[in-house]
């Protein structure tokens, strides 16, 4: 709704605070939270916290503006194109099996005495 031409925008000149205040007066916080299930309406709601969240979160603001338009019987925005929503969804990841690299095998060192009678010569440096 933010990219509409201002002359065609029924919300032009209406502050977000005015919209929230109107909706709270009309529905109350509880019903508003049921209609638009966002945390700023359902958990310790206030105008200030709602304004802070809605200014940062376009999808939530769009829902609030849509409800305001419907409640006042104002012209509704055209539905968003499916292509724009498809662009927002991450593409499915295709699992590919990568070949595993194996390290060359090293001869195993033993704690048994070697033929010359030294034990753990690899630890003590008695080569």
UniProtKB/TrEMBL annotation:
A Pfam family hit: VF530
Biased composition (Low complexity): 81-104
Region of interest (Disordered), residue spans: 74-127
Name the UniProt record assigns to this protein: DUF2132 domain-containing protein
InterPro entries in the record: DNA-binding_VF530-like, SAP_dom_sf
MF-aspect GO terms: DNA binding
Biased composition, class Polar residues, residue ranges: 115-127
């Amino acid at each position: 709704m933010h990219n509409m031409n201002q002359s065609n925008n029924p919300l032009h000149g209406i502050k977000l605070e005015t919209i929230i205040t109107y909706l709270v007066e009309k529905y109350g916080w509880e019903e508003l939270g049921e209609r638009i299930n966002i945390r700023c309406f359902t958990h310790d709601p206030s105008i200030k916290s709602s304004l802070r969240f809605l200014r940062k979160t376009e999808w939530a603001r769009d829902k609030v503006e849509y409800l305001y338009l419907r409640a006042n019987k104002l012209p509704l925005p055209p539905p968003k194109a499916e292509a724009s929503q498809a662009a927002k969804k991450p593409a499915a990841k295709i699992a590919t099996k990568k070949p595993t690299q194996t390290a060359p095998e090293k001869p195993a060192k033993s704690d048994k005495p070697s033929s010359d009678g030294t034990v753990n010569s690899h630890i003590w440096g008695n080569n």
